[in-house]
Task: structure prediction
Amino acid sequence: MSDRDTPVSELTEADAKKELARLADLLGAANTAYHTQDAPQISDAEYDQLKRRNARIEARFPALKRADSPTDQVGAAPAEGFPKLTHTVPMLSLANAFNDDDIRDFDTSVRKFLGLETAIEYTAEPKIDGLSLSLRYENGILVQAATRGDGTTGENVTANALTITERIPDGAEHPDIPNRIHGAPKILEVRGEVYMSHADFAALNAAQTARGAKTFANPRNAAAGSLRQLDPAITRSRPLRFFAYAWGALSEPLAKTQLDAIHRLSELGFATNPLTRLCTGPDEMIEHYRTIEAQRATLGYDIDGVVYKVNDLALQDRLWVRASTPRWAIAHKFPAELAWTRLERIEIQVGRTGALSPVARLMPVTVGGVVVSNATLHNEDYIAGRDSKGHPIRDGKDIREGDWVQVYRAGDVIPKIADVDLSKRPADAKIFDFPKTCPECGSAAIREDGDAVRRCTGGLICPAQAVEKLKHLVSRGALDIDGLGAKQIEQFYDDGWVREPADIFTLEERFGHGLKQLSNREGWGEKSANALFFAIRNARQVKLARVIFGLGIRHVGESNAGLLAAHYGSWANFEAAMTRAQVGSGPEWDELMNIDGVGQVMAQSLVTTFHQDAERASIDRLVAHLQIEDAPQAAHDSPVSGKTVVFTGALEKMTRAEAKVRAEALGAKVAGSVSAKTDLLVAGPGAGSKAKKAKELGIETIDEDAWLALVEGK
Result:
């Protein structure tokens, strides 16, 4: 059993760091596949399973929480091809619950946060499995429609959204998304889900088959792909629907409660779900969950759970939000699905960090409405039926080519094997011999002490690592070079045109003209070649965070790159600090380790990379071609922004938790103890040693009323 299979209660701190790094990478890839590419590789239920494991590890080791923690992520970067729109009010994701106890815990946490002992009312509604959409109306006219994207920035799909209508049997159409509404606030952002019914999905796939076109895997993919057509006429031809269930920016409130606001949206002409109910307390919430679950197969559209929201909107405002999820809502998810199939062969793939990853090639099988033909096998221990400490998993059953295996859409980038049926194992099935050399370059593949993964030692001489690093560099989160994708990188690498990052920026000089010019290659023309060269020239001017992320350094994700950029400010500062830093000691190492969100594993990976001669020379050659923009300075628009605040004593107008959330939302850092770094102490009745220490240190101390006046600008 590897770290990924070890119960959280048994993880050591070192194991937990590795596991959190793995989960951040896998869940980030899964987010991109689902939200940006409309091609999910895992089911929602099993994605949730891995995300829940991440949360449990963070709860046990709070100091290890990463800056790029999946707990704080919403969606994924918007896709290319559409103009980008910034959401005035972020489109948040929801925290998930998986059993009745989770719902009771949610209710308890809400009442505890608010300091209430009485029962609270919640709305309960089906969770539609579709594509989130935000519609902005100004003076009753639709001015823009945007997908969720990463929660902050989405795609402008206004023209396509206007084609979404209900097809009535008599041939008439009723717009699910009207161009004009009457009686609405001057500014109204209606939010909901675009989906496709089961009947319409079956008819669409039948039509696709008749034309010899590609069919869709499930209604959610069909809906997302249809909405993201660059030609609105294609979207109009697809049978899309829209349920409204929330709102964003408002010039005036819709109502005082969630349920009345939903009724208001219905009165304005939007379709709302008729199964939405008002529930008092967790028992009624769970009862309605059972009712919806029993009707799931007959609804005619896909749902994957039930969403509960605090009904009183004033209480929602007090509850605020976490980093990426509201405290006042939760999604009660349905369980995952399983299927059996044959494992035809095991292949080894080599990633950009040299990791040898075994993949099971399966006889295709449908799991949860998605056809699955591949599954992750994690590492050699997992295949052998043991964890990294030698303890058995799957009752010690190993996995072999030819085995009959149980597959479920679980928390990795691709589905996971849950079990093996030994009664169906072929007589000639052989124990899988995990390679000790890299299948791509022949270099030794070693497994370091404490590491569950075997890695190729070839580095830049390994073509698989080189190609994957190049793909990462040109990806959306890094240099984002339009027209230079995975296929083109592989092509240029195989032909010797691009072997390292700097080669990208000399491509035009070397192959922009002459006998071997790019436009003469198969699949390229003058227009496409010039477009690529133009994109490469534009990519020379790039933000610092994108460069750091684009280097592909192990354990440095997109969020961590942003942290590093914000701290060091410029490439010169960052490069100088990494050059001088020594692992484990010295002022530069201490400075790196003191960055909130940077742990020892990531810091060691950073410093080691900059001290490897070949890697460093490659980085220097790349940077010579770039104009790297300094990171923007953080804004200071709050009276407590950047200050360290401590709360002590009994607060009478809000709970301690509510006060902490409010302070952090205003840019303050809330500490649990008073020190010389404390800027402000907020003391309620019963303040003791903290107030005394603050007085000794000369730290400003105010009461709760003064605090509220300060943050509310009174």
